[in-house]
Amino acid sequence: MKKILSLALAGLLTVSMAAVVGAMEGQTKLGTIPYVPVDVEVDAVKDAAYDTAMVTEVGKAFANSSDSTATVYAIHDGEYLYVYGEIRDADMVEPSAADQESQPWVCDSLEVMIDGSNKDTVDATQARVDWTGWACWYVEGGLDSGYGDASTPEVAAAAAAEIDGGYAVEMALHLKEYGASAGSDIGLQYQINDVFSDGTPQANITINGMGPWDVPNYPVATLAPVEGYIALDVFSQADVIDDDTTQDQGGSGQPIQLMDAYGCGYSSTNDIVYFDVVDFGENGADFMTIRFGYGNDDNSVTKVGVYLDDPESAPIATLDIGWTGGWDIAPSGYVSAPVEIPAGAHSVYFKFLNEKSGSLSEVYFAEAEPAPVEEVVAADGTVTAPATFDAAVVAAVAAIISAAGYAVSKKH
Asked: How is domain 25-223 classified at the CATH fold level?
C-alpha cells in the first residue's frame, strides 16, 4: 500500500502528539494497535509487518453454535488500519453472487466493526471480506453501503486465501473513513460469519459474545501515535472560538463547531480553530500541511490565516484554498506552506478570514533543520563535522504539497 503523508514525513520529527479519547467505562480493553512505518502488501499472507501486531482471539458465539474461531492481527501506518485474520473453519460454502451483493453476511467471512470516535455513535462502520476475497462495507442504520471493489471507499484493499483448516483474509481500511486517527481509542469488534453446507442456520462469533451492532459493548483498542512528525486531529485535539456576529453568513445561523464528518463545520469570518499547546521540540517547525475541505466549484477561495500564540498577531502563513471536491473529509485535499515556528510549546490558531466557509480536519508539522554544529577538532585530530540537512527530506516534504485549485464554500 502506498502511504501519502506517513512516508513523506517519516523521520522528520522526534516529537509525536497523541490524542487519546478515554474508553467508555466497562468496555473490554484489547490493547494497542502498533504503528508500523513499512509498506504492507495486502495478499492474505501474514508477513513480517505483523510481528508486532495486536493479536486478538475471536471465539464467543452470540447466535447459534459453531466451533469456528479466529486469530486476528492488527497494525496501522497512520493512514490505514491493516487487519490480517486466520479463520478456522472446516466447512466453507461457495457463496453465490446474489448473496455477496445483497446479503454478504450469509457468506463465510470476517467482519471488522469500528466505532472510530469510541462514543457509541450510530454510524459505526463495518468492513467484511469473505473467504473468496469479496469485500464490502456498511454503515449502521443503512446510512451508506456498497459492495465490490469500485464502491468500497472504506476498504482500500482486500484479499483472501485458503489455508490448512480454513481461510485467511487481509484488508487495509482507511482510518479517516471510520473517523479514527492515530493516538486515539476506537471501539473495535471482530465477527466471524460461519455458514454451513447442510443448511443449518449460520453462526456468528465475536470477541466477547456481543452482537456486531451492540456498539456500547465494543471492545476498545488504542491506535498507537504515529512517529516521525507532529500529527494533529482537529476533532479530538482542537477547540473552536466563534465570532457570533458572522453566523448568518451563508444563511445557516450556526456557530462554528467540531463535527465528525468535517473536523469543523459552519465556519464564518473570524471564527477560529485552535490547538492550545503543541510541543514543537528542540528545533521548532518549518513546514506545515493541512487537510481541508472546500465545496464550492466556482473559482472562489476561502482564506485561512495561521497564527502562533496570539490570534491577533501577524500570521505565520495565509492560505487561499479553493475547491477540493467537497466540505467533508472524504473529498478534502492537502495544502502545504512553509512556516517558522520556534522550539518549545506554542498555541496554534487557524482563523477564517473571509465569508467563504471551509472544513479543517488534520494538521501536520515537519521539524525545522537543527542549528548547524561548529566543526570541532579533537586532540587526536578527529574532526566532528557540522550537521547537514538531508536533501531526501526536502524532496519527501515537497512531494506532499497539494496542487489543487482552490475555490469557495458555504456553511455545512
From this structure: Immunoglobulin-like (2.60.40)
